[in-house]
Amino acid sequence: MKKKNVGTLLLFLILGWLAGAWIAKLLEPVKALSFLTTSTVLKWSPQADLDIITYDITIHLKLCLLSLAGIITAVWLYRRL
Fold first, then answer.
1. How many CB atoms lie within 10 A of CB 44?
2. How many whole angstroms separate alpha carbon 77 and alpha carbon 36?
3. Tell me: the pLDDT tens digits for 11-63?
4. Which of 24, 51, 58, 78 could form a disulfide bond with 66, CB atoms 3.0-4.6 angstroms apart?
């Protein structure tokens, strides 16, 4: 039995997300497929002001149905390895 690498899984997930987002970007002009290409932005911005250090991080994640399909396909391909 082969041990699978977490780094490989993360690479597959990111590549699947990118592929889905690129396909969604290409299909944006097609009005009939707007339900697949409409994106939802998830925003997370943790911040703290501790006396000796201050940080403010903002992370925006853009997710649509096609990018979700890319992520699911990437997990399927990773499991097939």
1. 9
2. 22
3. 999 999 999 999 999 999 999 999 999 999 999 999 999 999 999 999 999 99
4. 24
